[in-house]
Amino acid sequence: MRVRVCARVGGGGAHTPPHVRPLNQVCFFLDYNLDESYTPKKLSVRAGSTFHDLVEVQVVDLAEPQGWVTVPLFAVDDRGERMPLRVRVSRLLQT
Q1: What pTM did the predictor assign?
Q2: Phi-psi region of 67 (alpha: psi -120 to 50; beta: other; left: phi over 0)
């Protein structure tokens, strides 16, 4: 089963879905040449079950990105196998 969750970034508070969701990647479109002053150089992906217990799960360094950037997200089970990250709240931060 393929799950696609779309979120719109804008003003206002964070949206908290009512259930835990699997999250295996985050994709976003960046164009350094179009607007270099607002294009992030580093992004932090944080996840958790509430807004207050978010943990950094991935840091991405970006060097003049152009186009779609895909950040894989996964947890590792007891056998060392990758599985989708199960989160209720996620947050992308420009650092």
Answers
A1: 0.70
A2: left
7: Cβ contacts below 8 Å, ≥ 6 apart:
15
Task: Identify the bridge partners of residue 70 per DSSP, sorted by sequence position.
Answer: 27
| Phi and psi based region of residue 64 (left: phi greater than 0; alpha: psi -120 to 50; beta: remaining) | left
Domain ranges within the chain, ordered by starting residue? 21-94
Instruction: Tell which CATH architecture fits domain 21-94.
Output: Sandwich (2.60)
Q: Give pLDDT tens digits for 66-84.
A: 999 898 888 888 898 888 8
The three-class DSSP label of residue 78 is coil
